[in-house]
Write a structure and sequence with these properties.
The protein has eleven helices and eight strands. It is globular and about 45 Å long. About 40% of the residues lie in helices and about 15% in strands. Bound molecules: phosphoenolpyruvate.
Length: about 250
């Protein structure tokens, strides 16, 4: 199966609106001759419509970092999937470890958010990953299996064609530590067979599985060389357009 490589940038809580537009515009210029790789950036929700507007006729796509699963209502401070979609996003990050860690995100709320995204026509980038302690205790696969099966609970085969999975070991996010090639290889292979077991071999074959965790220009080529790695979710190194383009052009 020929899965299109996908490189996504998570801008977390960095950049004001004007700063986000400036970096996004610079990045779009640098990406003008990129054809085979899909590129997406996820700015803050506040910058999202500005960035989406700036990237309108470019090849760089836009995603949100989070949303709330209810359609509308008295949920002060929250933003719905329809609002994200109307702001110009195509993707949403769901279940990022920082949201699980600092904002009480659970497998159940992740599942509701994935459903809300799909219902609004947004493509979810569903983030999963084990902590350092869970890995050291030998629980990596148990944790990942639970995150995937609970996060996708109640969803049918036909609804998942736009799903992207992102494996992000928590201990590798923002720490400068990257999982070893062999570790990434094993987990991605495992995740693809899990999708096959839970859904179908066709879905497992078509679903892109990204790696995230201190990806940088120096390690992206080796990571992308792994058979079941179809892309990267990049935090810190996506904030600078010149640095990020060197990740996007991992093959050159
Ligand atoms: C992330 O935020 O998803 C991430 C992987 O961050 P970093 O690349 O900085 O480790």
């Amino acid at each position: 199966m020929n899965r299109r490589p996908f490189i996504a940038g998570n801008w977390k809580m960095y950049k004001t609106g004007p700063e986000a537009v400036q970096t996004a515009t610079q990045l779009a210029g640098l990406c003008s001759n990129i054809k085979n790789t899909e590129v997406m950036i996820a700015p803050t929700n506040l910058s999202l419509p500005l960035v989406a507007q700036a990237l309108k006729n470019t090849d760089v796509k836009v995603g949100a970092q989070n949303l709330y699963f209810e359609k509308q209502g008295a949920f002060t401070g929250e933003v719905s999937a329809d609002m994200i979609k109307a702001a110009g996003a195509e993707y949403t990050l769901i279940g990022h470890s920082e949201r699980r860690q600092y904002f009480g995100e659970t497998d159940e709320s992740v599942c509701q958010k994935i459903k809300a995204s799909l219902g609004a026509g947004l493509k979810p980038v569903f983030c999963i990953g084990e902590t350092k302690e869970q890995r050291e205790q030998g629980n990596t696969y148990f944790v990942l299996d639970k995150q995937v099966s609970d996060g996708l609970k109640g969803l049918g085969l036909g609804e998942l064609s736009d799903l992207v999975l992102a494996y992000e070991p928590v201990w590798a996010i923002g720490t400068g530590l990257t999982a070893g090639i062999e570790q990434v290889e094993k987990v991605h292979k495992h995740l693809r067979s899990l999708l096959e077991k839970l859904f179908s071999s066709d879905l497992a074959d078509r679903t892109r599985i990204l790696y995230g965790g201190s990806v940088k220009p120096e390690n992206v080529k080796d990571l992308m060389g792994i058979e079941d790695v179809d892309g990267a979710l990049v935090g810190g190194a996506s904030l600078d357009a010149e640095k990020f383009i060197n990740i996007i052009k991992y093959n050159e």
